[in-house]
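Mods, move this if it's the wrong board.
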Amino acid sequence: MATVASLQNYSGMMKDTFPGDWFPGCEEVSTGTTLCAVEFDGGVVIGADSRTSMGTWVANRVTDKLTPVTDNIFCCRSGSAADTQAITDIVKYRLNFMEIEQGRPATVRDAAWAFKEIAYEYRDSLMAGLIVAGYDHQAGGGQVWTVPVGGMCVRQPVSIGGSGSTFLYGMMDYMYKEKMAQADCEKLVLQMVTQAIRRDGSSGGCCRLAIITKDGVERKLFLNNDLPTTW
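Not the wrong board. Structure tokens:
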């Protein structure tokens, strides 16, 4: 396929004839996204789809939107891919420095507030909706914190985010129960991401899960043809 540069520099093409957004690659890279995180007794389960888009152009269909911040804390990213990657790199640096300075592991709350400070201070410039989740050794359990666009920060036992979450609120209200077992949480997150992939045009690809407990992180990958689709 011809690149955008080769098309725009082609001498026989009248550039004024075609709108610039007709060419793939002219839009901001967006993670589109469906994110889901659920607490259970002993940890958290997080999940996301894997589609990265540029307008209607799918730039990457196997993106990993579950980004480690520390050994036991992950960030689920939605919004602008560049913004969320930059914020995550900054928070990684800050938490590493904090752990050295204070001589203790960073808590999930520490990570969430580090994300919140950046998202709020630069709320007019950034497009970043984040879910911060992980195992908290001080509290002795899993925690899920939501940092939506604008920089709010709130802890929730379950959180969904991204464009695909529009299709999931009723389903989550119906299916989520307090004190769910780990296996039930994994099944719930997988069903949520699968439903959004089927319904949301900005979500797609495969489903990535991460189960974070005191013993570490277990990653799971469900390819598109392995998703539990029922008709």
